[in-house]
Amino acid sequence: MLLLQYGSLTIQWLTIVIGGIFFATGLISFIIYLSTKKRLSASESITDSDGYRIQRPAPAFPIVGVGSMILGGILIFLPGSFVKGIVVVLALILVLGAINQLVSLARATKFASVPVLFWIFPLVTFGIGGFILVRPGETIDLVMKLIGWCMIFYGAVEGLDAWKIYSMRKAFEKNSANAQAAAEARARMQNPEDITDAEVVDDSNSHQTGEKI
């Protein structure tokens, strides 16, 4: 919804916020490094039993923290250069999501036939995502609104597909259970040996009873 209402402004501020997080984490690690180094320098030296000074291990220089600060500064002060990358990432999410929906529908064909309309929805999402990947340099505001609509459309289609596949699977399982029960009933009707044996036993018992009388 934010992409639809504010477009590129949302991406710009999102980039700045991400840059601020990177810069803050890098700054914290650098401050911890300086504090640890200062505390070790101010502490008294430790000697062993022979009087030799024991060298304390110096803290490792926070290379990752400095790199995080540099990256955060770039994202904060140059957010526009990062927007195109975010556009590409969002377009990739749309393309991969559409492929996932197509795969789910293909698996659902094992249970029942899938209506054509359910195949069209992910194809539309795939086409829009592919268009954005091919031409990411279009107007950022237009692209962001397009991605926003596609995200909403993708979420709705995902829920609809999940409901449809669930109902088809339940119907398939119910039909399979009914077919199995009918097959077992037919098998019992075609093999009446148990019933015949039971009648023979009853007749023999009745004859024995008559003889005793």
TrEMBL record:
InterPro entries (alphabetical): DUF308_memb (IPR005325)
Transmembrane regions: 12-36, 57-79, 85-104, 116-134
A matching Pfam family: DUF308
Keywords: Membrane, Transmembrane, Transmembrane helix
Region feature (Disordered): 183-213
UniProt protein name: DUF308 domain-containing protein
Originating species: Prevotella lacticifex
